[in-house]
Amino acid sequence: GSCHRQGFARLSAVYGGTYMLNKPECKVEFDDEGKVRGVTSEGETAKGKKVVCDPSYVPEKVKKVGKVFRAIAIMSHPIPNTAESHSVQIIIPQKQLGRRSDMYVFCCSYSHNVASKGKFIAFVSAQAESDNPEAELKPGIDLLGPVDELFFDTYDRYEPTNDPSSDNCFISTSYDATTHFESTVMDVLSLYTKITGKTVDLSVD
C-alpha cells in the first residue's frame, strides 16, 4: 500500500536513490553492448547500471506463458460458511474441480478499508484452461452467496527470457492466479539473489 511506497521512497532517498512517481511511458534504455543504461520518460533519462521492472516495460525480453481469469465480486455479506470472517483465503484443489490447476478465492472487507461500510470484496482467480472465464470460475463464484456486482478480468502472464547477468535488466514474472502471494514472494527473493548475489535471510533471532 501507500505506506510501503512512502517507506521505500524514504529509504531510497537515504541511500541516494531517486524515486519518480506516476511517470508516463517509461522506456528502458540499453547501450550498444546491450547493457542497461537507464530509464527514459518525458525526454528525461534516469541513469542506472541495473534496472528492475515488470514484463510490460521490456516486451522484447519476455515470453507469454499463460493467461489468468479473475472474477471480482462486491457483496453485502461475508462468504457463507466461513464463521462470518472478514478475511478469507480458500484454495479449491484441481482434483476436486477436474482441472489442471487450483482455483483461488480471497475475500476482504470494509474493515480493511478496501470497500464501503458494510461491503465485502471477493476475488476468484484461476489459470485459464478455456476461453470462457464465467464458466471456468463458476465453482469459486458459487461459494460466494448472493453478489451485488460481478466483474470479470483476463490478463496474460509473462516470464523473462533475457540473461540479467549480461544485460543488467532484472524482470519479474507476471502475477499468477494465486492470491496468497507465496509465488510473488519467491519471485522477489529470487530477484534479490540475482541482483546482489546474496540469499535473503528472513529468520528471526
From TrEMBL:
Signal peptide start-end: none
GO cellular component terms listed in the entry, alphabetical order: cytoplasm
Single biological process term from Gene Ontology: small GTPase-mediated signal transduction
Spans through the membrane: none
GO terms, molecular function: Rab GDP-dissociation inhibitor activity
Family under the similarity heading: Belongs to the Rab GDI family.
Alphabetical list of PANTHER family matching this protein: GUANOSINE NUCLEOTIDE DIPHOSPHATE DISSOCIATION INHIBITOR, RAB GDP-DISSOCIATION INHIBITOR
UniProt-recorded name of the protein: Guanosine nucleotide diphosphate dissociation inhibitor
Organism whose genome encodes this protein: Aegilops tauschii subsp. strangulata
